[in-house]
Amino acid sequence: MVIRLDESTFEKIENLSKSMNLNKSNLMKTAFNEWVLIRESIQLDNLILINKLLFSMIIKEITEEKIKEVASIMSDHVLSLIKIRQIKLQERNYLKSFLDNFTRIASKKRFG
């Protein structure tokens, strides 16, 4: 596989590979695997990554109305997550209760 890089990126890779004592191929493979893990985590957890510049621009530009709208959406989302976790917990408790009762009844019938 051949990858074309601009000189600046190539120099960064070169310097980083030397400082980490890795050859460029292993460095790129490691970086790619870490990127995939981060990307998968973001997608699974429904997260958004932003850099400092974008965050500071958002803070400067956001209106009070937008803050309230975002807060409302976030609180609805958090409440939904809490409800989902409660449902899952209740399912687990129900299943545990069912299995406990089943084994108790089955053992009485069998050995009772």
Explain this structure.
- With 112 residues, the protein is mostly helical.
- The chain has two domains: 49 residues, Arc Repressor Mutant (Orthogonal Bundle); 50 residues.
- Helices cover 84% and strands 0% of the residues.
- It contains four helices and no strands.
- The radius of gyration is 26 Å and the shape is flat.
SSE order and pairing:
Elements: H1 7-20, H2 24-45, H3 52-61, H4 64-111
Q: Specify the overall morphology.
A: flat
Unreliable spans are: none
CA gyration radius, whole angstroms: 26 Å
Number of helical segments with 4 or more residues: 4
Listing every helix as H and every strand as E from the N terminus to the C terminus, the arrangement reads HHHH
Label the structural class: mainly alpha
Q: Helicity, in percent?
A: over 70%
- The domain count comes to 2
Oligomer: single chain
The average pLDDT value, as a whole number, equals 79
For the biggest sheet, the summary is: none
Percent of residues in beta strands: under 5%
How far apart the termini lie comes to 70 Å
> How many beta strands in the DSSP annotation?
0
Looking at this protein, list some descriptive labels.
112 residues, Arc Repressor Mutant, flat, mainly alpha
